[in-house]
Amino acid sequence: MTELVEHGKLFIGGEWTDPLGTDTIKVVSPHTGQVIGSVPHASKADVDRAVAVARKAFDEGPWPRTTLEERIAVVTRIKDAIAVRHEEIARSISSQNGSPYSWSILAQALGPMMVYDAAITVARDYPYEEYRQGVLGPILVRREAVGVVAAVIPWNVPQFVAAAKLAPALLTGCTVILKPSPEAVLDSYILADIAREAGLPEGVLSILPADREVSEYLVGHPDVDKVAFTGSVGAGRRVMEVASKNLTRVTLELGGKSAAVILPDADLDTAIAGIVPAAWMNNGQACVAQTRVLAPRSRYEEIAEALAAAASALVVGDPMDPATQLGPLVARRQQQRSLDYIRIGQEEGAKVLSGGGRPAASDLDQGWYVEPTLFGDVDNSMRIAREEIFGPVVCLIPYGDEAEAVRVANDSEFGLSGSVWTGDVEHGIDFARQVRTGTFNVNTFSLDMLGPFGGYKNSGVGREFGPEGLSEYLEHKMIHLPAGYVPPAAGA
């Protein structure tokens, strides 16, 4: 029996505070369907309070005026504390959203540490000021913290996405209101404890669990300078619409329908070993998941057989079991969504090669499970190939020549990730140059936090990670200088 986790306070400006409302959020286990936790539901009045202390901390407080090294020291303490508590964080997240525990250790706990580390590396080398020779005389280009940031994060990888927003925001001197999803809020209390112990000054960080209505109120708050959002395309459009009323700066990391392209010369064992975890990672609940696999007709049957066998071999079960490779979906609605798309795919004429429903095991009856499902004979015009399912459903699409493979890969309203599998890496790089997507992989699947991450088309606006991601939390100021002014020598 899982112990019920209950919290009665909100973390506002670095202090544990009584909520101003009376509503609560019940956290439900996707494995059992039972309530495993309860936290206060932040109200609009709580948002006003959090934004007010963040505004004051940015306008008058010490945080934006500390040195970069001082901010790095605090962020390093956050990262180090996550290392100490990584198993607790992984267990908390797996219990809430169904991520397999072994995957949670890597992506939900150790992954955020890598994000903080990479952001520190970028921040140390970033050119916050530089002199240039302008048309009319010398100029000084300066980058300054954007201000108060509203960071709205999803339930699928909550600590990873929180780090992607908190790390650059804190390192540049911004103050932050973090809004976790109602489905995954318990781990945010661990993060609050860590931030408090790390020594963030008063007002710098608030964490407000809330639903969509309160999130919209936060996004539209006139004292918020920037919104950093990760979620669905529909929600991202609404965020942009609401934020535009105040001309609030926005970055959006949205959905994907990424293609993994197997070229005729690929080593099939290598390709399958790389594609399977990239396609079904986190139970298929990942924006970068490789959910369209493109196979040459000359090797289609061979690939279909190998991929179906690999999918069928995935271990489905209790997310807390270290042997589990595929756990339950986060909520009953997500389970039903996947089952609906499986039905739609069959009605469209696609063939189920593996999976296709709920697991037969009796001990999984109560949970929101869906078998790892592979469709074959998929046409790229089918809904299952065009719409983001966000579940363990993958499409195998045949193609003729390489030009067709490029066309199919690009024939999507999304452009977030992708991969190509080939015996010739140089040829793979050339293929990658033709695909309109924000990140791409050649004979591998990874996400490097020192480079820019984001999407083309409906997959988003702006970038996270690398110097490009840090820039999203900075304003760019030009200072004109008198003719003949000679800048001081570097290091002087």
Features:
single chain, Aldehyde Dehydrogenase, Chain A, domain 1, Aldehyde Dehydrogenase, Chain A, domain 2, 2 domains, 15 helices
Describe this structure in words.
The chain folds into 2 domains: 5-254 and 459-478, Aldehyde Dehydrogenase, Chain A, domain 1; 259-442, Aldehyde Dehydrogenase, Chain A, domain 2 (3-Layer(aba) Sandwich), CATH 3.40.309. Helix content is 38%, strand content 20%. The chain has helices at 44-59, 68-84, 86-97, 101-125, 158-172, 186-198, 212-219, 233-244, 268-280, 300-312, 332-347, 383-386, 402-410, 425-433, 466-471, and strands at residues 5-6, 10-12, 15-17, 24-28, 35-40, 129-133, 138-145, 148-152, 175-179, 205-207, 226-230, 249-253, 259-262, 292-296, 351-354, 373-376, 393-399, 414-415, 418-421, 441-442, 456-457, 460-461, 474-480. The protein has a 7-stranded mixed sheet, with helices on both faces. Strands 10-9-8-11-12-22 form a 6-stranded mixed sheet, sandwiched between helices. The longest helix has 25 residues, at 101-125.
Q: Write out the CATH superfamily name of the largest domain.
A: Aldehyde Dehydrogenase, Chain A, domain 1
Distinct helical segment count: 15
**CATH topology heading of the largest domain:** Aldehyde Dehydrogenase, Chain A, domain 1
Average the pLDDT over all residues and give the rounded result. Answer: 97
Entry summary:
The chain has helices spanning 44-59, 68-84, 86-97, 101-125, 158-172, 186-198, 212-219, 233-244, 268-280, 300-312, 332-347, 383-386, 402-410, 425-433, 466-471; strands at residues 5-6, 10-12, 15-17, 24-28, 35-40, 129-133, 138-145, 148-152, 175-179, 205-207, 226-230, 249-253, 259-262, 292-296, 351-354, 373-376, 393-399, 414-415, 418-421, 441-442, 456-457, 460-461, 474-480. Helix 9 (268-280) links the parallel strand 13 (259-262) and strand 14 (292-296). Helices cover 38% and strands 20% of the residues.
